[in-house]
């Protein structure tokens, strides 16, 4: 039987960030993941600069053999509508490839890594949990993404969850495809659906192209994706057919569906907790921030992992993500008929001020939100 202070199930950005901070606090940490890293993850791979700051990522070190694409502007609009170019003239975001990024963070965390092992069983013991019958831990962190087994086994998932559904593909373009791709490297393109319930994106990272579409409505996702791809070709943004399938995945937006994220000897982080920003669907930054906040609360509990000592995590998340739980159609007008929201939204998307200040600065870049400082101020009292 192996033993550790903290077992983290899931080695994505949430799990590896939590592990990294806990290792720095001197705890013995095991990260268990069912996949072997580097592994692919369905994702656009767009991150905001706060992510690099919070994780103290050395850009020179990271870019040795990995893709980090600077983003200096965006083209935004509705599918078939007027597109607006917003240029910042300096990097306001980056593009990473998830199989490189996640493997880098996990390796760097300093945790013991058990990979290629599915979490199948969890039993409570006197002093924590026993996972898969052979790992004894004093504290458990569920970081297994939307379908996190910890959330499922412990009953933390709520009924009738409303997930975002999205499909995505990333591939390296041939020379011929590069010549037929009008998407610029540092200017991703965002195309909102007519009903404003989602958006498609085209995102070039060096010679890789990432294309996808996500929606808050699970119905007919594949036909929305097919129509989007058809539109890109018809409008000559891409002069070739996307050469691979677009697999799908689901995840929860903060404030839309709530899971029970704190219990005795247990915390959930990242997609397992359902934290993505409602307006953009950005989930990497919330995953990392929740991992860091969980680590602060666990460290401060100093081995006494009763629910009361872990509760500050809930308050820290609420404080951090307050105001992010409104999808953007609701932000425009909850009480207006959907046809009016749609018409209004399409008009607004074509207005350069709205595209820059509201869509990009406020909803996508969170320009007014500084990177998380660590440790957070309010990790409360501890029960011995
Ligand atoms: C199509 C799409 C595009 C997206 N684009 C972006 C984007 O551009 N920018 C952005 O910020 N966010 C984006 N997101 C959201 C983002 O991908 C997630 O929010 C983020 O990956 C959450 O990180 P995480 O660490 O919580 O979970 P994950 O990254 O999902 O990691 C969970 C880990 O748990 C492991 N695991 C699962 N089950 C088990 C088990 N039974 N036993 C052991 N291990 C297990 C998995 O193998 C995985 O490694 C996108 C999502 C989708 C679906």
Question: Any overview of this molecule?
Answer:
- A hairpin with a 2-residue loop joins β14 and β15.
- The two termini are 28 Å apart.
- The model has no long low-confidence stretch (mean pLDDT 93).
- It contains 13 helices and 18 strands.
- α1 packs parallel to α8 and α8 runs antiparallel to α10.
- Strands 1, 2, 8, 9, 10, 11, 17 and 18 form an eight-stranded mixed sheet that branches. The chain has a seven-stranded mixed sheet with strand order 6-5-13-14-15-12-16, sandwiched between helices. The protein has a three-stranded antiparallel sheet with strand order 3-7-4.
- By secondary structure, it is of the alpha/beta class.
- The longest helix is centred in the C-terminal third of the chain and has 18 residues.
- Flavin-adenine dinucleotide binds next to α1, β2, β3, β12 and β15.
Helix content: 25-40%
N-to-C CA distance:
28 Å
Q: Please give the count of helices.
A: 13
CA gyration radius, whole angstroms: 21 Å
Please state the average pLDDT score: 93
Q: Identify the overall geometry.
A: globular
* Low-pLDDT residue intervals, each spanning 5 or more residues: none
Largest sheet: 8 strands, mixed
Helix and strand composition category: alpha/beta
Number of strands: 18
Bound ligands, named by name, code or SMILES: flavin-adenine dinucleotide
In terms of DSSP E residues, the strand content is 15-25%
């Amino acid at each position: 039987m192996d033993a550790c202070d903290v077992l983290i199930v899931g080695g994505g950005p949430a799990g590896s960030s939590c592990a990294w901070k806990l290792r720095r606090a001197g705890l013995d940490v095991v990260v268990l993941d069912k996949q072997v890293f580097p592994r692919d993850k369905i994702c656009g791979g767009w991150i905001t600069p706060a992510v690099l700051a919070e994780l103290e990522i050395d850009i020179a070190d990271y870019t040795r053999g990995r893709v980090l694409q600077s983003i200096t502007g965006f083209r935004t609009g509705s599918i078939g509508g007027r597109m607006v170019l917003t240029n910042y003239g300096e990097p306001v975001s980056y593009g990473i490839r998830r199989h490189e990024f996640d493997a880098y963070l996990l390796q760097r965390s300093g945790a013991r890594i058990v990979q290629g092992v599915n979490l199948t069983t969890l039993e409570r013991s006197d002093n924590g949990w026993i996972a898969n019958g052979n790992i004894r831990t004093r504290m458990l962190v569920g970081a297994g993404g939307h379908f996190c087994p910890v959330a499922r086994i412990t009953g933390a998932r709520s009924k009738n969850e409303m997930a975002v559904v999205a499909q995505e593909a990333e591939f390296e373009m041939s020379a011929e495809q590069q010549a037929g791709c009008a998407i610029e490297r540092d200017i991703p393109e965002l195309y909102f659906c007519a009903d404003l319930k989602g958006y498609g994106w085209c995102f070039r990272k060096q010679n890789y192209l990432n294309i996808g579409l996500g929606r808050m409505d699970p119905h007919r996702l594949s036909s929305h994706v097919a129509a989007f791809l058809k539109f890109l070709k018809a409008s000559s943004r891409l002069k070739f057919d996307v050469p691979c399938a677009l697999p799908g995945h689901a995840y929860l937006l903060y404030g839309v569906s709530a899971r029970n994220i704190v219990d005795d000897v247990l915390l959930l982080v990242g997609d397992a907790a359902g934290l993505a920003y409602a307006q953009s669907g950005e989930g990497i930054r919330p995953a990392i921030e929740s991992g860091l906040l969980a680590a602060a609360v666990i460290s401060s509990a100093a081995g006494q992992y009763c629910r009361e000592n872990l509760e500050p995590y809930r308050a820290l998340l609420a404080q951090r993500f307050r105001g992010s739980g409104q999808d953007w159609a609701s932000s425009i007008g909850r009480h207006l008929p959907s046809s009016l929201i749609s018409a209004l939204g399409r008009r607004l998307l074509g207005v350069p001020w709205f595209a820059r200040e509201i869509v990009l600065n406020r909803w996508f870049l969170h320009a007014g939100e500084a990177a998380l400082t660590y440790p957070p101020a309010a990790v409360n009292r501890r029960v011995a």
